[in-house]
């Protein structure tokens, strides 16, 4: 029942422009949404009288390229029974290189072979999976009142590569971490346009069960409780209405509900505030009935001053492009191979990588192991110590081994925890020598880290020698690797989309250096720091690549 209702909700999004004419020209409209989408609006024609089976199939594929999105005309190419059973909202397949076979007569029906190369698939929630798969299907057609119509067609929408590039854009929708203290992004693709806020909220309302590689929760009522679309008024206020009473919710639940919705709709151009209503009226939060999208900063997934930790001449410093600052209470750390810190915790790995030292309040905590990876200190101040035998966490002097059995069978080469501390990422090598980039959930019990959840592989077929993985945002990774642009900094979304050298909007070419490790300063704008074999640090910012005023650096993190 839940799937059927969710399908109905998404169908409302798809059919929102169903009253447009059944045929007409491609038109251009003003592009004021700032997402770089095509401005072409297209209303395909319905089936022509006397159309051949081949023309009907081609027309059906063409009808799914309507913009604004509508499945109405496409359904006219189906028999009445097939139209009732067709579920266009179930998925979206992105394809290229479509081919048609010969029509094969079978009594009063026809069979046409349709083939294409699938390049990506989106599920009902908008989750992206890259593909490179040749698909071949037989579509059966029957006569309805003397006209050919498709009697068997695959569920979901089929759109071309060009259509996907023109009209789909990546967004993050937001759930809550297990402690409900901050939001966790989940990457989706949605069609831009007037129905974008509705589509984004539909992704959240379906629930967090399929959120990519994260264990999350939600305060947003289920999809069947969402009333229609999400309109935006002249004051840029998005009206979100549910069919359940909300005014009896405790204040903390109201805030968590609003945080999810505000953070999610903040990604839709034109939305400046949100008004949430239940069946019992408008929901007031903190005395306000309109929630500004700049509010709920306390739920933010990232908090950092944009600096990184570095060991310069055996002394711990925090670096940016122009300054070096000492870390209070910590000075000489000696010769180290890896470092990580926040404002109160410093973790270092010894030069032979057999020891790891955590400096907090009180006496330092020292661990021994085999081939420690670079340490990591997450947003909660927990230090992650990963070596060839175990994954341990250190907090307030307490050392605990956590269950990381899901990573058995691979040799880890780097490890990092996301800014929201909800996910982990690793680069790894299998016993067969295959390199992998993996992302999985960090699972907690009573707020404490308990184990690592089953990871998902991030498609990176064009990369080799992957190492030094780090998080740029809650849904984008950066790493050092060899690829089409040579030995370089590459970044990719955790769903495998938008694999590129460097970061979006920044220059690509790495200076002629031999990179050793990579770090990201998470401030208002991400900054990439690369340490070379000669102990020099390079910074990539919107200004381009530049040298950091620090020599004899042995580790960054």
What's this model, at a glance?
InterPro entries: GerMN, LpqB_C, LpqB_N. The protein has seven helices and 39 strands.
Describe this structure in words.
Keywords: Signal. Pfam families: Germane (PF10646), Gmad1 (PF10647), LpqB_N (PF25976). This is GerMN domain-containing protein. The relative contact order is 0.09. The strands form ten sheets. Strands 3, 4, 5, 6, 7 and 8 form a six-stranded mixed beta sheet that branches. The protein starts with a helix and ends with a strand. The chain folds into two domains: 300 residues, Nuclear Transport Factor 2, Chain: A, CATH 3.10.450; 187 residues. By secondary structure, the chain is mostly beta strands. The chain contains seven helices and 39 strands. It is globular. It is 12% helix and 41% strand.
Estimate nothing, just give the exact number of structural domains: 2
Tell me the CATH topology of the largest domain. Nuclear Transport Factor 2, Chain: A
Query: Hey, roughly how much beta strand do the residues contain?
Result: 35-45%
> How many runs of DSSP E, i.e. beta strands?
39
- Helical run tally: 7
Radius of gyration over C-alpha positions, nearest whole angstrom: 26 Å
Q: What structural class results from the helix and strand content?
A: mainly beta
Overall residue-averaged pLDDT value: 89
Q: What would you call the shape?
A: globular
The CATH class of the largest domain, by name, is Alpha Beta
Helical content, roughly?
Answer: 10-25%
């Amino acid at each position: 029942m839940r799937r059927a209702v969710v399908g109905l909700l998404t169908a409302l999004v798809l059919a929102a422009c169903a009253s447009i004419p059944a045929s007409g020209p491609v038109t251009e409209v003003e592009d004021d949404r700032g997402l770089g989408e095509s401005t072409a609006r297209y209303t395909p024609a319905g089936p022509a009288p006397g159309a051949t089976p081949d023309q009907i199939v081609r027309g059906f594929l063409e009808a799914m390229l309507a913009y604004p999105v509508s499945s109405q005309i496409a359904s006219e190419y189906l028999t009445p029974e097939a139209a009732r059973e067709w579920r266009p909202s179930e998925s979206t397949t992105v394809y290229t290189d479509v081919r048609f076979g010969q029509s094969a007569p079978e009594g009063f029906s026809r069979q046409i072979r349709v083939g294409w190369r699938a390049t990506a698939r989106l599920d009902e929630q908008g989750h992206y999976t890259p593909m490179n798969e040749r698909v071949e299907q037989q579509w059966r057609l029957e006569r309805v009142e003397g006209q050919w119509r498709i009697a068997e067609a695959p569920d979901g929408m089929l759109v071309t590569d060009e259509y996907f590039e023109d009209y789909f854009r990546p967004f993050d929708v937001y759930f809550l971490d297990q402690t409900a203290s901050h939001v966790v992004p989940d990457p989706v693709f949605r069609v831009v346009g007037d129905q974008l806020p509705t589509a984004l909220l539909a992704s959240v309302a379906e629930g967090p069960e399929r959120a990519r590689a994260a264990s999350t929760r939600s305060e947003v009522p289920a999809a069947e409780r969402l009333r229609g679309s999400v309109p935006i008024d002249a004051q840029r206020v998005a009206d979100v209405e549910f069919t359940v009473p909300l005014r009896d919710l405790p204040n903390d639940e109201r805030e968590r509900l609003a945080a999810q919705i505000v953070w999610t709709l903040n990604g839709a151009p034109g939305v400046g505030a949100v008004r949430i209503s239940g069946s019992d009226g408008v929901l007031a939060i903190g005395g306000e009935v309109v929630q500004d999208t700049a509010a709920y900063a306390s739920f933010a997934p990232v908090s950092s001053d944009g600096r990184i930790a570095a060991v310069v001449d055996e002394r711990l410093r925090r670096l940016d492009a122009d300054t070096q600052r000492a870390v209070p209470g910590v000075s000489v750390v000696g010769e180290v191979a890896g470092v990580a810190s926040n404002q109160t915790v410093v973790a270092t790995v010894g030069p032979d990588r057999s020891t790891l030292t955590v400096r907090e309040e009180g006496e330092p905590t020292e661990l021994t192991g085999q081939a420690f990876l670079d340490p990591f200190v997450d947003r909660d101040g927990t230090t992650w110590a990963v070596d060839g035998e175990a994954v341990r966490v250190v907090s307030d002097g307490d050392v605990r081994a956590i269950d990381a059995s899901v990573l058995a069978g691979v040799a880890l080469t780097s490890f990092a925890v996301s800014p929201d501390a909800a996910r982990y990422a690793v680069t790894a090598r299998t016993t067969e020598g295959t390199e992998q980039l993996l992302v999985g959930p960090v699972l907690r019990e009573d707020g404490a880290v308990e184990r690592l959840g089953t990871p998902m592989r991030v498609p990176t077929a064009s990369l080799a020698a992957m190492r030094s993985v780090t998080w740029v945002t809650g849904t984008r990774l950066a790493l050092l690797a060899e690829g089409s642009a040579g030995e370089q900094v590459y970044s990719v979304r955790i769903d495998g989309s938008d694999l590129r050298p460097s970061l979006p909007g920044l220059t690509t070419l790495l200076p002629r250096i031999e990179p050793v490790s990579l770090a990201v300063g998470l401030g208002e704008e991400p900054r990439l720091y690369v340490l070379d074999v000669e102990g020099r640090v390079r910074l990539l910012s919107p200004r381009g690549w530049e040298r950091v005023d620090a020599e004899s650096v042995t580790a960054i993190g």
